[in-house]
Structure formats: C-alpha cells, structure tokens
Specification:
The protein has 200 residues and is mostly helical. The chain is built from eight helices and two strands. The protein has a two-stranded antiparallel sheet with strand order 1-2. A hairpin with a 2-residue loop joins strand 1 and strand 2.
Length: 200
Amino acid sequence: MTDPSVTELRLRPGFPLPDAEQSHPAVIRRHRWITLPSSAVMIVCWFLPVVRVCGKPTIPLEWPMFWTPYVVAGLVFAAALVRPWSLRGIAIALRVIIGLTVVGFGTLVMFDGEGFALVGIGALTITIVLAITLPAKSDEAMCARCGFFVALPSCLWFGAIALDKDALFGAYLSFAAAIAMWIGCAWWWGESEAAAQRVP
C-alpha cells in the first residue's frame, strides 16, 4: 500500500498547512466577478482607438506616458488570479509603477503647468499618498488599494476624453472599464481587510 499523497493529507482535518498558507488569511474572492472582466477589458482598450489626433485615430499604445491604467489593469488581473501569499512581487510592482507615473507627470508639469497636465499630477499625487505611503494589512490589500486609487483618477481621465468631440469608442469602453475596476477593487479591498482582521 502506497503512502497517501500530499493532496490527500491536506484534505484531512488537522493536517498542518505550509507556513505560507498559515500566515495569509483566506479571502473569499467574490470581487473577481468584477475585477477580472473589467481589468481584461481595460487591457484590450490599450490597443483600441481612443481619440483622433490631427484627424487620425490614435491608440494608447502610441503614448507611453499614459500606459499606467493599462499596466495596472494587467497587474490587477494577475493579482486577482494568483494565491494571496504570492502577491508580494505584484504589490511591489504596483507601487513602483504608480511612483514612476507621479514622477513622470511631475516632470511634465514643469514644462506645462496648465490643462490636463495640472489636473493629472494633482490626482496622481493624491494617489501616491493614499496608495503607497499608507500601510496595508496584507499584500492583497495593497494590490486592491493600488488598483482602487489608480482606477479612480482613470475614471476622471477617460471621462474627460469621452466628452471630447474627437473621442472614439475606445474612450467610452475605457471609461466603463475604469468605473467597473474601481468598484471591483473597492470590493476586493474590503474583502482583504476583513480577512486580515480575522487572523488571530
């Protein structure tokens, strides 16, 4: 008779879990019903025409300075799929990307202190303070919070583009995806914080 497999043992009451699983709270991830489709749609919008520039349809992929919502959406999508105790790298990547975005917009404002540049740096400065500097109870809560505070100014950004007479269908789809991702990440944030409070 062969020894029981690890999988079989794990299903038995009282079988000890690995340290990584014991040190991270279990989260019922209902938020996936919103965060996964919304972040996936946002990634697709990266390749869709958003606005006409000089009469020519332009996709976000042509403008690296505006990649942040799409890169963050990709990381949110990945974070929603992996195990909670595997999120350290994604949490760090999100904070680095947000920090670089604020630095980039700050540099832009040095040369253009009017219009969308000023609005963008103001919104993203708030984002950096709230999403990076405040401590989180877990890496999962940090990922959810970063997604939340990037999706929030993204709603304003894509909403402003959608109101422009040169806006294309990619702008409207990005606006809807940003709103959904904001709601999904808020839900996720709440779930992860609640799970962290249950840890003795």
